[in-house]
Amino acid sequence: MTPGLRLPSRRVYSQTHRRSHAQPLLPPAAPPLANHVPIREWLIFGNGTRTREGSLSAVQLGQALVRTYGSLGKLSRRDLRELKRVTGIGPAKAVQLMAAFEIGRRVEAEGPGERVQVTGPADVARVYGPRLRDLPREGFVTVFLNTAGVIAGDATISEGGLAASIVEPRAVFRKAILENAAALVCLHNHPSGNPEPSREDVRVTKQLVEAGKLMGVPVHDHLIIAGRQWTSLAERGLM
Questions:
Q1: Residue 141 backbone dihedrals phi, psi, to 5 degrees
Q2: How confident is the model at residue 19 (pLDDT cuts 50, 70, 90)?
Q3: Whole-model pTM?
Q4: Any idea which of 44-48, 186-190, 221-225 has the lowest mean pLDDT?
Q5: What domains lie within the chain, and their CATH numbers?
Q6: Which of 41, 107, 138, 176 could potentially form a cystine with 181 if both were Cys, beta carbons 3.0 to 4.6 Å apart?
Q7: Side-chain half-sphere of 219: how many Cα atoms within 13 Å?
Q8: Distances 213 to 64, 69, 147, 194 between C-alpha atoms, Å
Q9: SS3 214
């Protein structure tokens, strides 16, 4: 381990924060707005829109979207191409809608201050869970920690298909060395919503841990983000 690193060891990190394998990222979300409730906060729709069937007010358009997708959470996971196919949603409104959801994710991910001290997996999940949980494809992210165990930055290493992402250790540690990281925490999402690590997840994690020992940049944990749940491979003893 890098001299001077004050982050707890993997053993302490695991035992201090041991919980069940599927842990909520955040308190349960508020129930989706009922169809009959005016969605007044959807100001991005302005005065509404015109369709072949007639005019739709902003409230009617918002209600129609919630009816179509079931909830705001499900709506937030749609991509630009799909949103543009919805009656009344053109390219401009689709971009505005995606931007509004992205702002919401970033606000949710922000803590009370800029410095985030990592003492366990929950600290990392709180910051990065909102960014990863709605992605339609797997993405692999590394979080850089300084010698005080404070998050100093991050990097997206790969973005995969619907089932798996490709992770190369040299890409992970090249970025870590360039950022002068003292330690790493890795994360990736499971679009399926299943927080259980696969055999491939465990294999890649062990490979990264061994590479970290050689490079002098320890990997403290690998988190799987699955919806509002997360799993720590360190806590599960899989590193």
A1: -125, 140
A2: very low
A3: 0.59
A4: 44-48
A5: 10-27+115-232 (3.40.140.10), 43-107 (1.10.150)
A6: 176
A7: 27
A8: 54, 46, 16, 30
A9: helix
